[in-house]
Specification:
Elements (H helix, E strand, L loop, with lengths): L1 E7 L18 H6 L6 H18 L6 E6 L5 H6 L7 E5 L7 H14 L3 E6 L1 H11 L5 E5 L13 H12 L5 E9 L1 H5 L5 E10 L17 H15 L5 E4 L3 H9 L10 E4 L2 E4 L4 H10 L3 E5 L7 E3 L8 H7 L4 E4 L2 H4 L4 E4 L4 H10 L1 E7 L2 E8 L5
Parallel strand pairs: 1-2, 1-4, 2-3, 4-5, 8-11, 11-13, 12-14, 13-15, 14-16
Antiparallel strand pairs: 6-7, 8-9, 9-10, 15-16
């Protein structure tokens, strides 16, 4: 019998769609803006994938879960079809959960002697788990937060299920990965202050576990971004709404347009005029009702290769559908693109992910009238 720990941060990722760039210390503000929990659903997807994979592949792995009460674990395990004799609650949380619940749960998991701790959240949750177990127990993250720069996260819930199976069958070794963290208060001000928080062990498989964030800055980055900006500006169509995603390349485009583009937010431009700044999902849906012609410009940040699903959760499936896949432009400097074999997309909507996959490849603007092509990769659904 394999003993695994399972804990969910119920508020992880809630700030994303409402433009808060995280949920640390601003839960009430996120709720007032209409934010809804998403981590329980992400955890449920993983658990269902795990059960489905065992059934389809006829590889039944005897797993006993130790978990937390309510929304931090037990409710989701029960919803996924696990019976009461397949999991045990070792920590009772209150109606209002805190990071201290995560830490106490992980302390109990360690005492129980679990082989692996599976958690659902973002970098803040990864940091809390790390602070308790350090390197005494391997950990694996189901991505659900706004900030996921650490190397401990699976690419998506389905890949986490595959990693768990491969690990329990003895097909994966443990690898050292970094826990990174971003100062959310600074992040909301447009300042990217990222640091190494610690090292943990995780079952590692390159195709399923994302690399820790790498900040790439080459000697000609500024000139390249100016070329990209000049090309984008020349190609901008009149009476078309342009939604500009986060990142320094998009900030350079804003500078070229002489607008106050946020570095880490999502802004909207119409006829070269900034009409909405640091938007939420609700803001974007409202704009899309007003402007029938629209294009979205995004850029992968760091070395992970994600253009949708990390750091821009305001671009929800509903927003993306209204924009249309064919109206999405990708920009990146050549030095950044050299580190990316694929462009990853995780919209958290299976049908939409598959629609992207049908395109097979996406064109990337890498300079003035200069293009590159990268294969599209979406979650593997079991």
């Amino acid at each position: 019998m394999h003993l695994l720990g399972f804990v969910i941060n119920p508020i992880a990722g809630m700030g994303g769609r409402v433009g808060l760039k995280g949920t640390d210390d601003v839960v009430e503000k996120a709720i007032k803006r209409g934010a809804e929990p998403i981590s329980g659903q992400r955890a449920l997807e993983m658990l269902k994938s795990l059960r489905r994979a065992q059934k389809v592949l006829k590889r039944v792995l005897p797993i006993q879960w130790v978990t937390v009460s309510g929304a931090m674990g037990a409710d989701v395990l029960r919803e996924a079809g696990f019976s009461s004799d397949e999991y045990r609650v070792v920590h009772e949380c209150g109606e209002k959960t805190t990071r201290e619940d995560t830490r106490k749960a992980c302390s109990r998991f360690r005492e129980e002697g679990v082989e692996l701790i599976v958690f659902c959240g973002g970098d803040g949750t990864a940091r809390d788990v790390h602070d308790v177990v350090i390197t005494s127990v391997p950990i694996l993250g189901i991505p659900s937060g706004v900030k996921m720069h650490s190397g401990v996260f699976g690419i998506n819930p389905d890949s986490v299920a595959e990693v768990i199976m491969a690990f329990l069958e003895g097909n994966l070794e443990l690898g050292e990965v970094e826990i990174m963290d971003l100062d959310e208060e600074q992040y909301r001000k447009g300042i990217w202050s990222i640091k190494l928080h610690g090292i943990v062990y995780t079952p590692f498989e390159r195709n399923y576990i994302q690399n820790a964030k790498v900040i790439i800055q080459g000697p000609s980055e500024k000139e390249i971004k100016e070329e990209i900006s000049e090309y984008i500006t020349e190609e901008m169509e009149e009476d078309t709404l342009y939604i500009l995603g986060p990142g320094s390349t998009l900030k350079a485009i804003g500078d070229h347009l002489h607008i106050d583009k946020t570095l880490l937010g999502i802004d909207a431009v119409y006829n070269t005029v900034l009409i909405a700044k640091d938007t939420t999902e609700k803001d974007l849906l409202s704009l899309l009702k007003q402007y029938p012609s629209v294009k979205l410009i995004v850029s992968p940040i760091g070395a992970q290769g994600f253009i949708l699903g990390r750091g821009n959760l305001q671009l929800s499936p509903e927003v993306i559908r209204k924009i249309g896949i064919d109206n999405i432009l990708v920009v990146a400097s050549p030095s950044k693109l050299r580190h990316m074999d694929v462009l990853r997309i995780d919209t958290q909507d299976r049908a939409l992910d598959e629609a992207f996959l049908k395109k097979n490849h996406l064109r990337v603007i890498v300079g003035y009238h200069t293009m590159a092509v990268r294969k599209v990769e979406v979650p593997t659904h079991i």
